[in-house]
Amino acid sequence: MAQRAEVVAPCRVDLGGGTLDIWPLGVLHPGSVTVNAAVPVRVRLTVEDSAAPEEVLLQAYDGSQQRLTPDDALTDLTAAVAFWFRPQAGVVVRVFEQPPIGSGLGGSSTYAVALACGLIELGSGTRDDRGLVDTVRDLEARILGSPTGTQDHWAALLGGVLSLHLEPGKSRVEPIAVDPEWLGERLTVFYTGIRHHSGMVNWQVVRRRLNGDPATHNALDEIMWAARQCREGLLECDEERVADAIRVEWAARQRLAPEVCPAQLGRVAMGATGAGAAAVKACGAGGGGCVLIWHEPERRGAIVEALRPLAPAGEVLATGVEAQGCVVTAGDAA
């Protein structure tokens, strides 16, 4: 009988230090950290070993279907992950839940992690988290043709609030013990409906930093400082310190590339601030997708109402923290 693995993994919102997790930026700025929180925006999928050898049948979230072979592994993320972790493939992948494409919440990396975990469950069942993160990162970089980070992958695997210490040799992952209710009351993730391409923005930043551009160097230094302050603020449950850190991070990030804050996204950020938000920043590389709004608990309703006319296609995606990381449930296929 065919076997099936059901996988649920959370996406993340980055509070500070995003982009620094793309090698070698973190090690070029000693002391770098990336701080993020898993949120209740999830990827949910199943993997069954019921397809023919050397093929992957994908039933996507939008209802479309694809038949993938090893020839697709250099251009398609599903094929790349499937044929790496299960060279003989022969699986059916069904996606039941995922964030909006281009949300800035690391949805594609979360999907890749969830798929890899499901394939491992159908195989050996023994998971090496660090090896999984490094492998999926590299497969994504191969598909994109540009370097990628790892913060999305760790949030998907572990959940909760994390600080990635970007040290030489390997990143050190530190769970941050912060009251999830306290954090959830002050954090709103709002999807703007503005599409973006994070890989393009990230590659511009990496290239400029490696070419020695002083403005990029200084902006990344400020992002590093802000992320460290954000970590300290979370550890102390100091909402003002966290707000200050997010404001500094966002101001510095906008100097990295003009695509980080297009006009419509700028209007959304200003609208949130005008309605009482203490700090606002785009999630991920910026350019669109979701914004993180940091606010006093009683201001959430007024802020969301103020954003509706500015982002007609927008919606609140999350208001809390997901403490549970990737969960895999195995059994016989129906």
Descriptive account of the structure:
40% of the residues lie in helices and 23% in strands. Strands 1, 2, 3, 4, 5, 6, 7 and 12 form an eight-stranded mixed β-sheet that branches. A four-stranded antiparallel β-sheet has the order 9-10-8-11. It has 334 residues and is of the alpha+beta class. Helix 3 packs across helix 4. The mean pLDDT is 93. It starts with a strand and ends with a strand. It is globular. The protein folds into two domains: 3-176 and 322-332, Ribosomal Protein S5, domain 2; 180-318, 2-Layer Sandwich (Alpha-Beta Plaits), CATH 3.30.70.890. The protein has helices spanning 25-28, 77-85, 107-122, 129-144, 151-158, 180-186, 198-210, 214-236, 239-254, 263-274, 300-307; strands at residues 3-16, 33-48, 56-59, 65-68, 91-97, 161-165, 172-175, 187-191, 279-282, 290-294, 315-318, 327-332.
Task: Offer a concise description of the structure.
This protein is of the alpha+beta class and 334 residues long. It has helices at 25-28, 77-85, 107-122, 129-144, 151-158, 180-186, 198-210, 214-236, 239-254, 263-274, 300-307, and strands at 3-16, 33-48, 56-59, 65-68, 91-97, 161-165, 172-175, 187-191, 279-282, 290-294, 315-318, 327-332. The strands form two sheets. Strands 1, 2, 3, 4, 5, 6, 7 and 12 form an eight-stranded mixed β-sheet that branches. Strands 9-10-8-11 form a four-stranded antiparallel β-sheet.
